[in-house]
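Filed under: proteins

Residues; backbone shape codes:
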Amino acid sequence: MRRPAMRVVVVLPYALIVLVIVVDVLAGSAILLSLLAAPAALASATGRPRYVLSVGVLAFAVCVGAFVADEGVTAERGAVALSAVALVALAAAYASEVRLRAERRLVSVQTVADAAQNVILRQVPRRSGHFELAVSYVSATVGARIGGDLYEALPHPGGLRIIVGDVQGKGLTAVGSAVTVLTAFRAAAPADGSLQEVAEHIEEALERREQGEEFVTAVLADCTERGDVTLLSFGHPPPLVHRADGTVLTAAPEVPGPPLGLPGGLGALHEDGPGRYELRLEPGDRMLFYTDGTTEARNAEGDFFPLPDHADLLGDPDLADALAELRDRLAAHVQGPLDDDAAMLLLRFAPAPDGT
């Protein structure tokens, strides 16, 4: 689809020159002579300077021919038309060069940004031990792949540890807080400590920030190879559990814990504190972790996206396809760009038949 469209763009300036010639011939007079300045300007929108100049030279030659052939064109009108075609062609070639320089800078900046984003939000493994995983991230910022939402999944002795979170706020400060959380999680999660200790390590890292007062909602999960799951929720939307038999439940603690990064938050973290939830996964069961950019996405009537109503999609054999379908339904609900980032991580408990 892209190549035919590009051909049309390339041919269009020449087609405009032909149109001017045809109309002037049919009219028996050079009535559209001044329009010959337009093709070069049109070419500058997408073409390189050499292409723009070639269009301008052709238009200038046609303008000269029309001026000579039509005795009804006064010298003053001919001089104005020729000057306009020449000046517009030169200006269009310069504009084309400026545009190309800007595009090169944008590509360079985007390449650096992509490299940084790949470091911040790494690809999670498709399988880790007895678990299969897939992720989806849609940034509310056009052209970006990361904002204030974050996710990570790391193996640790006896299982897998997961974090999905959302930094309050947007922009570079939110990204900075996301980096702080992910760095702390990556340092503590693989160690043979409790999930509570991982949360405390993240809280300590947030307290050491020199800039940024954003708090972070997050859910941490400790998944064992037996299918036992411990969740610690810090003001974050609860995961959805899709059982192998189609049953859907919400893994919500009776009392959610406070967000991370609040003043004095470290003192509120303790083993018996709020936000704790435990469950057991059976083979084929799935868990969907997500951020509030998913559930708080509104349609034109102001209605939130009813995520539980679409939980049937989680039963798709391919986890990536399940998230893609869910993302499509989210886009269809919003009918436009999202107001907030939306991250989703889907996990399936899939031990090998022999239990290894």
Observations:
- The chain is about 45% helix and 20% strand.
- The CA atoms of residues 45 and 96 lie 7 Å apart.
- The radius of gyration is 30 Å.
- The mean pLDDT is 85.
